[in-house]
Amino acid sequence: MTQPTELDLPDLRAALADAYDIEVPIGRGGMSHVYLARERRLDRRVAIKVLLPDLARDDARRGRFLREARTVARLTHPGIVPIFTVDEIGGFVFFAMAYVAGETLSQRVTTRGPLDAYEAGRLLREVGDALGYAHARGVVHRDVKPDNILLDAATGRALLSDFGIAYESPSWGSALVGGPGLLRRPSAPRGLVVGTAAFMSPEQASGDAVDARSDIYSLGVVAYYALSGSLPFRAKTDVAMLAQHIADPAPPITSVARFVPPRLAQIVDRCLAKEPWARFADAATLVRAVVDAVEPLPVPLAVRAFLVRGSHLEGPALINTFMTGAILLPMAVAAWLSSTPPAERVFASAALAAGLIVPGVVAVARVRRLLAAGHDRGELVAILEARQVRRREELNFVYGPRPVGMERAMAWLARVALLGAATAAAGIVGVVAVPLEVALLLPAVAVASAATALLASIVARARTEQRTDPRGERRLRFWRGAAGRWLFHIAGLGFERTTPVVTVLHSSETPA
Predict the structure, then answer these.
(1) What are the Cα distances from residue 466, in Å, to 31, 132, 394, 407, 463?
(2) Is 116 a residue of the active site?
């Protein structure tokens, strides 16, 4: 088979010119190229998937390509990229499908890092729902991977694509027939190993018959990757990778992504069970479990009280920090550097020690109370992450993802005013030569420019904080970081935990 090249593009444009305007290549695979095009008749953007010409002359490859088109054409679901038409023009075999403006899950994780629990839960729910629809119609995808999951830029919705190696049961119908203990599933035949090694289920890697539960395993690998940015198995060759999927237990997701909520972690780990019967019975069951684990998030009463008290203590903590740094520390330094009586030195040192130690003692006491209720740092961080995800979504909807309007104008005004103040100061000290009549005005210009820069900066910062919620982000970083880890470590010394009491927080009770 010849290697894919761009040399086919001029011939393709000429062959399809009556129906499509071929614009640019947007993807490629071992059998086909994908191009962005505009359909002339309906004036809409589509993605054209074209079978390579040399493969189009191979009856087996051609049949496989057309089977993909027929399979997807029968699946009408918002989570599956639809196919509009399949055709052969000028020797090119192709089909036209909906164009999804956005990126693949693989690109998303590569460029911006792992998804948080809420985003990953949404992804699992949407892809799982699409798979459940396909399974119910006898179709096993067999190639669920990040490159085949498209994220719509406008809505963030995940869509499943590329059914090129999907298996369609000859008997079109339900993927699960019968009651408990009697499950009859359409499954792909034995003996043929197809798919992507890093995402294959053990039975698929072994060449055994696969069914819907094989796709659930692959989706578990996708979730593992989405939450951690890494794969459960790594190997230098595809054969070694397949052997690991067959024989080695997958490391728990929490071993590489510490702050995944416990219930979501259990779902991912269950998807990666070696035996099909140990996984979720079907995609619908998986989706229900994800919804229960991520939406709504159960927030225990003790954690809510912990967060509320933390908000109330932020003001006193700020005052304490100011007094310690601006008053107590200079007082202690001055006492030890001057010839003051020992008693005054001791008093100044004790005051400084109190300013430094008291906040830590209060924080440890708060953490111990949280531990006493049976909750740990992982649970606290997971709840804070979920709150911040929702907060970011709300702020993004109201203010947009980037600075606009007043915020940007004030930022530029602050820069210009600061430049004016610096220029005026340079003229005052003689760095820049200016006429005498101008020099007399420079002090007033410098003061006015500096005041304008300060005021514009304050306004811009206030708008930025309104758009980005920095206080919530700082709180999340604190408890995720080393300081939060050490607080829980110190508070947990010699401590026996009790069983937590979970109170479900309804949407109307979300703490501020």
Answers:
(1) 50, 41, 11, 10, 5
(2) no
